[in-house]
Amino acid sequence: MIDTTQCRLITLRRAMRMKHVLEKHRAHSRRLVDKSTILVSNRATKFVIQAALLLFRSENPVRVKVI
To answer: Which parts of 1-67 fold into alpha helices (H)?
Structure first.
């Protein structure tokens, strides 16, 4: 579970900058992670993260939830 509720602004550009880190750890996540949940504070952030996830093509299911 990843909690981003304390982050004030998450842009698509910032999310895309995380791609190289995710690619680096992709082999480990295939073996160790079944599913993920990302908690966000509003619908706009949910939309940005979902757009980035579509571009990243994650191999495991990722759920984005507004709290």
So the answer is: 12-17, 19-24, 26-32, 43-56
